[in-house]
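Appendix B. One record, verbatim.
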Amino acid sequence: MADRNRKEQIIDKAVGLFAELGYYKTTTAMVAKAVGVTQPYVFHFF
């Protein structure tokens, strides 16, 4: 269940960054930093 909540947090932050910066300018590193996790952790879910 905690993993599911974390995945939802990642998605929410990513969507916000996509809206702000655009899909192609948003990196997984930016998403990871916004969520407070590492980039490999983001890849774990996707």
